[in-house]
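During the no-cost extension, the postdoctoral fellow (Dr. R.K.) reprocessed legacy sequence entries with the updated structure-token encoder. One reprocessed record is reproduced below for audit purposes.
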Amino acid sequence: MKTIAVAAGMVMLGMSGMAFAQAETPVIDQRQANQEKRIDRGIASGELNGREANRLNAQQEHINKIEDKAKADGVMTKGERARIDRAQDRASRHIAREKHDRQKRH
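Re-encoded structure tokens follow.
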């Protein structure tokens, strides 16, 4: 009877450890959401045409894949965070550039 209780306790402890091992990335996720909103607002205002919006959305999807790959092992290293941060910086510059060029949607 004790061995069953001990085994159940070990399973519960192991499961709680797995939850803590998940790489939490609220800052990255919030920044992704903000950039996606910027793209949506650019489409709505006409600052972005369809081709620009598609390219920017593809870039956001690429960043999401990088993040998913980094989280796959349950740990996000400083190097992985830095790579995602650089990709987000680049995407942010592209969004700003495309929104403020003189092109309008056709």
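Residues 91 and 97 are 10 Å apart (CA to CA). Residues 22-99 form one domain. The remaining legacy entries will be reprocessed before the final report is submitted.
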